[in-house]
Amino acid sequence: MATQPAKGRVVMPYAQRLPSGSYRIGWKEPDGSPGREVVPAKTLSEARRLANQREQQAWLTRNGIVPVRPEEPTIVEAVKLRLDTLPPEFATKRNLKEKLRFVVAAFGPRRPSTITAADVLSMLAKLPALSPQMREHIRMSGQGLITFLSDKARLYSGPNPFKEAGRVIVPRRQVRTYPTDHLPRLFDALQHHHRAPAATALLTGCRRGEVRVMLKANVHLRERYILLISGGRRDTTKGGRERRVPIPELLVPALTAQMATKGPYLFPRPGTATPYGPNWRIHDVMARACVRAGLIKGWRPYCFRRTCGWKAEIEHEAGSRTCPQCERTARWKAIPMDLRFKHLRSTWGTVAYSVTKDLRLVADVLGHADMETTRVHYATALPENVMTGAEATAQALSPWRPRGVNPEETGGQQGKSNPKRRGDT
């Protein structure tokens, strides 16, 4: 059992509380030298448990029962090692680093063996401002980090606390799409140099990055297809393979006009030969176009004074409001619907399936390796048997049915009328 060392004599293993409130443990290394470390334990009992674990591991190694393993790194060291070993073609390094930042903030100086599933759940519970999907991504990044230490780096052997914590429940929602009857007004609200890339995304289902770096050499107007070889930040598309997407006849005039622009890119910046950068703010462009086209979800009153900063919740209609802090007349801002450039792609996928009922066609054009992804996200049209059953049920439950009509009868036939009671005229 780990005990606090007596004065003048050190008993291995041991655990002691420091004046700072943290705990220091000691054990005997496999070579016989003393080992010490300040651990982020919360209680003396937890520190003693860690000391006993270190002593037991050293004893097993010293007696040849288990092979000698390098020292277990801290989470900070593990994250640095993970990011340094990513291959050059790993395109989402920045996103992974952003997610691992939350793991470092919670467990930076700790070692993986000291982290439990309860600690991971506590970390996620302290992030209520993040969406469930983002919290699940953070958990998965931590799980991948521990798996990397176990399988690739061989620096840790033990349970994966991020895996034991379980998945974060993420609600499954339908993909958002543009109303087809609003599309003409939406494109009228776009500036001229934004209409062609938006139309390409809408009529071919290409991603934002694929549209941004689309090359003229890969646009084959005679054969009516576009060869997609890059996804913007990646050397390949998101699926890791090149693919061809068909060019509809409606898109040919717009692409023909773009072929006459400067440079090798199909959609360069206006008046230049350079493409838009990775931070192309086309999502903001689409949001402003939604406001001009009337695709709004409400109005938000706010105070024009920056020093005040007051704003209220979204309301259905704009009216007369006064700032409660500075008593100035409030201004109203139209809040666009949650529709951006990427939803042009989802609009194509949803409409294509509803028109053709061909799941393989939609998956091939969108570049999905798994048809289940296409089915879950884009097969939103109700099957014919569901519509037929719903119509039959509605006819049986219709509250507007005339009196004397039997709901069990089919063909719209009316039942016999009720006989007159005695005394009725």
C-alpha geometry: extended
Task: Estimate percent helicity.
Answer: 25-40%
The strand line-up of the biggest sheet is 1-2-3
CATH architecture of the domain at 75-164: Orthogonal Bundle
First-residue to last-residue Cα separation: 102 Å
What would CATH call the class of the domain at 75-164? Mainly Alpha
The CATH topology annotation of the domain at 75-164 reads as DNA polymerase, domain 1
Q: Which regions have little confidence, pLDDT < 50, spanning 5+ residues?
A: 412-417
Task: Give the biggest beta sheet.
Answer: 3 strands, antiparallel
What oligomeric state is this?
single chain
Give the DSSP E fraction (strand runs of 2 or more residues). Answer: 5-15%
**Rg over alpha carbons:** 32 Å
InterPro entries: DNA_brk_join_enz (IPR011010), Integrase-like_cat_sf (IPR013762), Integrase_catalytic (IPR002104), Tyrosine_recombinase_XerCD (IPR050090)
Region (Disordered): 394-425
GO molecular function: DNA binding
Keywords: DNA recombination
How would you sum up this structure, described in words?
With 425 residues, this protein is mainly α. Among the domains are: 14-62, no CATH class; 75-164, DNA polymerase, domain 1, CATH 1.10.150; 181-258, Intergrase catalytic core (hpI Integrase, Chain A, Orthogonal Bundle); 296-336. Helices cover 39% and strands 9% of the residues. It has helices at 44-62, 75-84, 93-107, 117-125, 132-152, 161-164, 183-189, 192-204, 208-212, 252-258, 282-292, 342-356, 359-366, 371-378, 384-397; strands at 14-17, 23-28, 34-39, 219-220, 225-228, 243-246, 296-302, 331-336. The strands form 3 sheets. The chain has a 3-stranded antiparallel beta sheet with strand order 1-2-3, with helices on one face. A 3-stranded antiparallel beta sheet has the order 4-5-6. It has a two-stranded antiparallel ribbon with strand order 7-8. β1 and β2 form a beta hairpin. α2 runs antiparallel to α3. The protein is extended and about 85 Å long. The chain starts with 13 loop residues before the first strand and ends in a 28-residue tail after the last helix. The relative contact order is 0.07.
